[in-house]
Amino acid sequence: MSNNAPSSQIFTTPAKAAIFGIVIGAVVGVALLMLFQWGFQGEEHGGSHGSTAAQDSENTSQSKEPLYWVAPMDPNYRKDGPGKSPMGMDLVPVYEGQQGNAENNQGNGAGVVTISPNVVNNLGVKTAPVKREPIDSKISTVGYVQYDEDEIVHIHPRVAGWVEKLHVKAEGDRVEKGEPIYTLYSPQLVNAQEELVIALKRKNTGLINGAKDRLKALQLSEGLIQNLEKTLKVQQNITFYAPQSGVVDGLNIREGFYVKPENTLLSIAKLNKVWVEAEIFERDAALVKKGLPVSMTVDYLPGKEWKGNVDYIYPSLNESTRTLRVRLKFDNTNDELKPNMFASVTMFSDENSEVVVVPKAAVIRTGTQNRVVVALGDGQFKSVHVDIGRVGNEYIEIVNGVVEGDEVAVSAQFLLDSESSKTSDFARMNASELPKSVWMEGEINHVMAGHRMVNISHGPVKAWDWPEMTMDFMVADGVDFEALKAGQTLHFEVTKDDNENLIITGIHIMSEPEVSSATVNGVINDINIATRILNISRGAIEKWGREPATMDFIAAEHIVLSEFSVNDEVTFTFEIHDDFIIVEMNGQHGEHNQHRMHDASSASDTSGVKKAHQAEKAPNTHDAHKAHKEGGESAESHDSHESHDSVDHSQHKRGHSA
After folding, report:
1. Predicted model pTM
2. Which is the most buried residue in 198, 294, 468, 499, by most CB within 10 A?
3. Strands, E, within 449-528: which ranges?
């Protein structure tokens, strides 16, 4: 028994160890196998992912081309290819999908505001479409009721006299045609009646007809003339009657007044029709035409409306209010409308053409600019400048800036505009490029012939958004440069070349510079052919109040100086520029034609000539007057010398005769 026990124990221990080792080995193997498989799968997955990303990137670079290249700091600076920005930075490519609505709305550039959808809802942003439809063409304004001046009669006496009795007592009194209005005593009326009585007594038909015609011309009634023919009794006081029915206006007399034919005694106006003087804004002037229907209400009779029409459109605007005056005409059969009543007027234009309109609430109107906020889509908004036309009750006409189909904000637009205005260029939507050539109006200040340039002060240029400026322009070879002169006003076409140089390519001269000129007689004292200067003793210039003087003149190029000589008596026309330019000269040659004025020139010294020049160039100044006065002393001394020579000559002649 003892021998068997150790043997069994020894066998059991190695078997257990073997079994344990097998189990441990299996576990480790499984773990290693799983670890290996996981690593392989991860490597395989990672390699596939990297390959896909690389492939996508490669496909993108191969399939997509940049739409354009922009400057990193200025998205409005665009080029078709790579390059440098004005700041020296590399341009960045922009691909499809990155440019937003660039094709239609100038991209995510200046002034574009992007807002998330929830913020759009919180702000309560609402939009409305830009559409095309006829705009409400009613023009509402105010006016004042007046008499129809076509129906007013002014009463004047035909003779001087005294008002003995006044049958109307106050303005506004109603009179009927044929009612007495005043009685007048006039000696002339008495004499006219006596002439008819004398003619009747003599039974001279010619005198009778003449006397009766005179009484009719003095506005005596037919009944008075017939009564005078029957009774042959002259009336001292004559009564005059109303020529039409109406109300008295402008009563300027009382009993006892002495009146003359130039005095307006009173006026009689009808009220069956009235005028209403109204004013409309300048922008509505083109919509108003003669004959347009008009409606009117007055506070005097609320709820009642009068129908009338446009009777007359005045030709000029009020320079202070910039409004146009319009005269309206209404029937007033019951005399309900009174002069000077305040009236509310509505005119109905017949303009029904369709135009581009936006709701009135969409337009942000400032003192210098009108803007709307355009919804670009995807939460993007931009403030743009618009030109407005007619303004209706609900809509405003848009002339330029947006087109039919655009969406504009009608609420919260002020907040969007303030944010967009920080960087906006306010460029119009779908705006065309600026024109290369424009016509301007200006005045030439000076001409630079050596450089073929002119300096012009021109007015504002709307097409290029230029204010009034004074600047130099080059003149194209095809333009007649010789026709340009300082002081001219002209229309001229300016074209920008590829280098942005401004070149005048067309001209239309509107007015030439004003030049003072005079025609006068004179005697040539000296001629300098080289300098074309003539010294001439000229006669007086009456239209300028200039006395005779000896002066230097320059002959124009077309005048042939070889045809003239010293001592020639000439008639010449000169113009005042920087110098005195003779533009026309005719005369006779020979010393025998020497004028006595030439003697005066020899007596005047050079200082007198100089002072006369000063006076000629400044005809309205005190210094010019002084210079003329001093320069003319030589002429005055010559006059006395000339008179003395004349006396001596006559005495010598009488002595010779004796």
Report:
1. 0.43
2. 294
3. 453-458, 469-475, 489-496, 502-511, 517-528
